[in-house]
Description:
The structure is a single chain. With 193 residues, this protein is α+β, with helices and mostly antiparallel strands. Helix content is 23%, strand content 30%. The chain has six helices and ten strands. This is DUF2249 domain-containing protein.
Amino acid sequence: MAVEGVSGEGKEAGGPPEWLSLALESPPMDVRPLLVQGVDPFAAVMEAVAGIEFGGVLVIDAPFNPSPLRRILAARGFSSYGRKLNEGHWRVFFHLDGGEDWESGAEVEVGPEGAMTWREEDGLHIDVRKLTPPNPMLAILRLIEGAGPGEIVVVHHEREPHFLAPELAERGWRIARVSTEVVNVRLWLERES
C-alpha cells in the first residue's frame, strides 16, 4: 500500500485507507481511564486535536466506537477509521486531510487476532501489519482454512514472513507472488493446482 496524498486519494476500494499506515506508528491516546474515573475526555481530545497540523494523525483508544466524536472531528476536516480490538476496546484513527469517513461504505471484519479482512476485486485481503507474533501467522492460517475453492488471499504484512511458506505448503497453499513497498509487503496466496 503506497502512501499517497490526502483526502482519501490512493485508497483501495473496500480496503483500509492509505493514510492508516501513517497512523499505525502514532501512540494512542487512551481515554478509557478518564471515563472509568467519570471524567469526560472531550476537552483532552480537543486539546490534542488543536496541536495537529494538516496531514497529521491522532489515535484514540476508547471503550466503544465514539461516533459523536467522529462526526465532530469530521466537521473539522478529519477522516476516521476505527476497529474493535476487544470487548470494551476500540482504536480509532483520525487523519487531518479534509474529512472523509472511510468506514461509511466499507465492509471490514476484524478477526480474533486483530487482523482486518475485506474483499476487493483481486481477492480476499488481510492486514496483519502491527500484530505481534504469532498472531500474523495465526490470522493468515485461520483465513485460508475458511477460504473457498479458487479464492486468492492477499496478505498485507510488514515484512516477508519466512515461516509462512512451509505452513502454507502443509495446507495445500503457496505464495504465488510478492510485492514489496515502503510500508507494505503483499503476498498473493493461492491453493496448489
